[in-house]
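Write out the bound-state structure for pyridoxal-5'-phosphate.
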Amino acid sequence: MKLKPFRLERYFAQYEFTAPYLLCCSDCESLSVGDLLRLEQNAHEELSSLWLGYTESLGSPELRAQIASLYPNISPGQILVHAGAEEAIFNFMNVVLSAGDQIIVHSPYYQSLGEVARSIGADVTEWPGNPDRGWELDLQFLVENVTDRTRVVVVNVPHNPTGYLPDPRFMQELSALSDKRGFLVFSDEVYRGLEYDPADRLPSFAEINERGISLGVMSKTYGLAGLRIGWVATRNKELFDALAAFKDYTTICNSAPSEYLATLALRHRNPIVERNLGIIRGNLGLLASFFARHRDLFEWHEPKAGPIAFPRYLGASVEQFCAELVRQSGVLLLPGTLYGQGYDCFRIGFGRNNLAECLPRLEQFLENGR
Ligand SMILES: Cc1ncc(COP(=O)(O)O)c(C=O)c1O
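---
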């Protein structure tokens, strides 16, 4: 298997710890270990006395129970914990795909959702969201592009980078098509829980259909990327067992302190998520007025969920714009071309507290350029 460089990660490797004003991060404001330990009286002592032997390969029973409680119709035995969402994507693609299979991927997409499949020799068909309709996915495209070789359809809802969120009918129709044509649905739900209106929250695909695999992680909704704890939920026992067996070749089991801290955080998820949504809502207000002041340069479409959006740049080259911006002002945006050729958009992140600091610098850069 030969994997191409992960464009987005290479871009972050260049700037993440040098550019002072990160304005394109895909997660929410993080917390410290101390912040988490203060959530419960005995937590400090419990963490200190934690045994650092190998942990249970499927994930600790307490953590799996907490994760399962995020899904009304999933039991702890249907949760498999991984090292981040990234490991789960890698393992899933390797378990289910063979050379010559077809996989259809909601696009633009987080690169590993297509790249791992490509490296296995699968044919990747992109299923593009429509930018003129809020990045909506058209199920008719799927009807027309599914073949007898289609093994997997990937959806990412809420979506990175556009914040697109379909309605529940979309999920039901996708499920019916999966029943009819027999493909698996890999549903990347790492932003689930960050819907601005809770009524917009979709049921997870794993709950809707046994052919569904739902992906979750501590990194985005909870802002705890450094824990490197992700998971899949599925009612498909055969697939679950195959994924569990594959994990013996990647990480075997998870970090014990991370599992402890993730369990603790999930027990207190409501205040953590409320805080993150509070940051997002405040930042969205600032962004709405910023983009209203710069209609000549950008096309803004407010997402329905999550801490990122994908506004359009109306100037000549979005790559050049982002490169000049970071060089002159230290503000990092992410050019849409990192998601694939032809995206004249950029990713902007608003899940962190630094937005109020970054935005005036971006505005100053625009003023200087006039
Ligand atoms: C849509 C999506 N899926 C999966 C991942 C991987 O998550 P993690 O880095 O926490 O493993 C990311 C990270 O940016 C993502 O945006």
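---
The chain has two domains: 7-32+270-369, 52-268.
Residues 52-268 form a domain with the Aspartate Aminotransferase; domain 2 fold (CATH 3.40.640.10).
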